[in-house]
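Table 4 source record.
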Amino acid sequence: MTEFQRLYTGRLWSVLAWDQLTALWQRVDPAAGWYLLAVGVAPAPTHAAAPASVSACIERIDALLRAEHHESYCGIVYADDLENPCLIKIYDPNKLGSSCGSSKNPPLPGWIMSRLPPDGILAAGPVPENRKRWWQGLLGDS
């Protein structure tokens, strides 16, 4: 098992409230070497994203979550450490099952932000074309 896989399958903390999500994003240093992965859309990145791409990703994913997750709480973002995250799993609000892992086959996250190179993540099913285009438009060829 790789270091990324241990982190990915390890204990994660839920971001329950929208203000907690805002605080989490403020703790993410875009220049800290983040790998950005849209699960099932493209192969795992082999290099960290540029700081501008990380900032754009945070801004766009935050807007998407707030627009499409029609709940008074967040509850679909998880991090290994809420104060100094190295891994953030973000679930697609339009593809939720039981993201807390209480089911036998919890859904995969829609997006992963990691300070370790991601590996071993496979898509559980087809990714809608609109999500693929959204992600590709966000990152371009970076």
